[in-house]
Amino acid sequence: DTEVTQTPKHLVMGMTNKKSLKCEQHMGHRAMYWYKQKAKKPPELMFVYSYEKLSINESVPSRFSPECPNSSLLNLHLHALQPEDSALYLCASSQESGPVGNEQFFGPGTRLTVL
Amino acid sequence: GENVEQHPSTLSVQEGDSAVIKCTYSDSASNYFPWYKQELGKGPQLIIDIRSNVGEKKDQRIAVTLNKTAKHFSLHITETQPEDSAVYFCAASKNTGNQFYFGTGTSLTVIP
């Protein structure tokens, strides 16, 4: 299994809602990532978990809250978002160690619209 | 920090022709250079990568070259097909790091 899965595929939420994005991989990877991608732009790194510990937080606003319940799962909890947070949210994973440890594999993304 | 520049931003080629996309990087410590293809509505797909201990790598119609001295690397697609139409991103990273520095992307259109 070489796949990163993300749910939901699309999400529309109001500014007062609380929702969560989910990501799962079964490749035995020990690093997992959240990226935000605006149209016609490259992915922007938000968070990195390495061995289930948060290792990088790219100064992301607290209305985005990541969680890594185990080595296969990654969540992104959303609360009080702004319309400018509308984007494609991508999850990725990598082995984290070994000669190909930093090869990142991306999921299909969740298209988020904040009204 | 690292800065990756990518050119051109758009590229149109006739089916069967070759396409070349170029990236430059600034940090000489970068030593891993992946290329991603992103089709509309999908996540980026790793199509080829190169590490700094080699100068060229090929996989069927796709090849990547790396010039460490000049700090640039290029993606070459031969015998292009309409299904090659997508946005391509280059990136630079260190072998031991999680952080990718992406180029700004190239929108490739292959005209049948």
Overview of the molecule:
The complex is a heterodimer of chains A (115) and B (112). Chain A is built from no helices and eleven strands. Chain A has strands at 4-7, 10-13, 18-25, 31-37, 44-50, 53-57, 64-70, 73-79, 87-94, 105-106, 110-114. Chain A is globular. In chain B, strands 2, 4, 5, 9, 10 and 11 form a six-stranded mixed sheet that branches. By secondary structure, chain B is mainly β. Chain B has strands spanning 4-7, 10-14, 19-25, 32-38, 45-51, 56-59, 62-67, 72-77, 86-92, 101-102, 106-111. Chain B is globular and about 40 Å long. Chain B is built from no helices and eleven strands. The chains are: A mainly beta (115), B mainly beta (112). The interface between A and B is medium-sized, with 26 and 25 residues.
Residue-averaged pLDDT of chain A? 94
Anisotropy-based shape of chain B: globular
Instruction: Give the ordered list of helices and strands of chain A.
Output: EEEEEEEEEEE
Low-confidence runs of chain B: none
Radius of gyration of chain A equals: 14 Å
How far is the N terminus from the C terminus of chain B?
41 Å
Radius of gyration computed on alpha carbons of chain B: 13 Å
Kindly state the mean pLDDT of chain B as a whole number? 95
Q: Helices and strands of chain A: which structural class?
A: mainly beta
| Helix content, binned percent of chain A | under 10%
**Structural class category of chain B:** mainly beta
Number of DSSP helices of chain A? 0
The major β-sheet of chain A equals: 7 strands, mixed
Question: What does the oligomeric state look like here?
Answer: heterodimer
Largest sheet of chain B: 6 strands, mixed
Approximate strand percentage of chain A:
over 45%
Biggest chain-to-chain interface with counts: A-B, 26 and 25 residues
Number of strands of chain A: 11
The helix-strand sequence of chain B is EEEEEEEEEEE
- Runs of chain A in which pLDDT lies below 50 for 5 or more consecutive residues are none
Task: Estimate the strand proportion of chain B.
Answer: over 45%
